[in-house]
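Retro notes (design track)

What went well: tokenization of the new backbones is finally stable.
What didn't: we kept losing track of which sequence belonged to which structure.
Fix going forward: every design gets posted as structure first, then sequence, in one message. First example under the new rule, 297 residues:
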């Protein structure tokens, strides 16, 4: 078993290794890769396991925390913090004591957020900055809040978050990639309009945009290739509440190359491809709201 000093080096090595893996695999990493981990001083360090609060056998304190795609703990956001639920209800469970010790020593953690079965978005490093005993939770913050006390973090207003930290806050970093992966998984990693299945060319589109209060949930999302995402955002293409694709009248009258003809115009009056699970289908009310804006162009 390593000492605390050695564990700091393991943590830094793990964070660097994860960045290298993201450069290879993209923003989300497969669970098997994280379970295998990496070699440190001739020993394999695993980064994720059966417990949400994970401590490899060689270490004294946890190295990572995990929220699964269907987590029973309902980890949630609280201003600039993520509330990460205790293991169980006993504040003195060994896993909870481990995170409390992490907090006291100001040690970095890795946060794995399940986006779809077997895939995780990685946020690292994160830090424990206080507890909410009533909600049986630890407050988890990103790098930009590392040197702030719990009291200072709780005093940060939503306006200050928007102005000072912009898109670098953990709150914004977590929402978009998790939303994106869950939407594309629901649509079996294909464009809902043209069936393109090249994942590197797919994006998750909001039906009601973030800027208009759109929620980062699957029924407010569409899996679209980059071309059709841009066309949907620019109101060249609309989708009616009965899931029918409509192409703008002036675009239908245009004459151009094969991309316009086969990639845009021929979609008119076709149905979109729906997710397998009905609970993931686009919300008709949201589609109607967006479709009305499309018809005004």
């Amino acid at each position: 078993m390593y000492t605390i000093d050695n564990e700091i080096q393991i943590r830094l090595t793990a964070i660097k290794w994860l960045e290298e893996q993201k450069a290879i695999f993209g923003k989300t990493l497969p669970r098997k890769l994280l379970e295998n981990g990496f070699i440190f001083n001739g020993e394999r360090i695993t980064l994720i396991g059966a417990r949400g609060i994970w401590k490899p056998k060689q270490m004294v304190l946890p190295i990572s925390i995990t929220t699964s795609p269907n987590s029973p703990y309902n980890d949630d956001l609280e201003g600039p913090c993520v509330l990460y639920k205790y293991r169980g209800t006993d504040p003195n469970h060994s896993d909870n004591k481990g995170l409390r010790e992490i907090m006291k020593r100001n040690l970095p953690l890795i946060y794995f957020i399940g986006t779809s079965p077997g895939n995780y978005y990685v946020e690292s490093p994160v830090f424990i900055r206080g507890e909410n005993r009533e909600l049986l939770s630890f407050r988890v913050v990103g790098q930009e809040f590392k040197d702030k006390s719990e009291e200072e973090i709780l005093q940060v207003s939503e306006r200050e978050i928007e102005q000072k930290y912009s898109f670098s806050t953990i709150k914004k970093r977590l929402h978009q990639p998790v939303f994106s992966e869950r939407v594309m998984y629901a649509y079996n990693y294909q464009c809902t309009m043209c069936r393109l299945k090249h994942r590197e060319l797919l994006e998750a589109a909001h039906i009601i945009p973030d800027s208009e209060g759109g929620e980062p949930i699957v029924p407010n999302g569409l899996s679209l290739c980059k071309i059709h995402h841009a066309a949907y955002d620019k109101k060249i293409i609309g989708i009616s509440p009965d899931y029918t694709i409509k192409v703008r009248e002036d675009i239908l009258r245009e004459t151009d190359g094969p991309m316009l003809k086969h990639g845009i115009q021929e979609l008119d009056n076709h149905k979109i491809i729906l997710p397998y699970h009905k609970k993931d289908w686009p919300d008709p009310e949201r589609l109607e709201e967006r479709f009305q804006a499309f018809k005004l162009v």
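Added context from the reviewer: The chain has a mean pLDDT of 84.
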